[in-house]
Amino acid sequence: MNTMGSDRERGSVTVEAVLLAPAVLVLVFLVIFGGRWAIAQQAVEAAASEAARAASISRSPGEANGSASAMAGTSLSEQNVRCSSQSVGVDTSGFGAPVGTTAQVSVTVTCVVDMSDLAAPGIPGARTLTATMSSPLDTYRGRQG
Fold first, then answer.
1. What are phi and psi of 10, to 5 degrees?
2. Is the CB of residue 103 less than 8 Å from the CB of residue 21?
3. What is the pTM of this model?
């Protein structure tokens, strides 16, 4: 019986585990980070879409600004996205178009998402996510521009 071969391989499983464990942990960490980033980006896009719709059913640019800001904040809150800072920009130039012509309102939502709980070397602690969405204004409804 040859016991020399088995003596040389003794402990090889331990060495393989020590070498592979960090690589597997890094891979799992990157999947978690990427998933959180993708979910937050989708939430910002949904908030921009909902805010654009809220602005498009408003009667005036001032009302559109208020409605869009409120809707974006509500949407992000309902989706459990916590922004360390957030801004909502509304392009209300479409309200100046005469009734009977096509026009739209655009909303840009920017959210700085805190990911410091996943902080690791090379991974930023915060990500700035931005989305812009548009919604048409009713062609034949009165507007205050």
1. -65, 130
2. no
3. 0.79
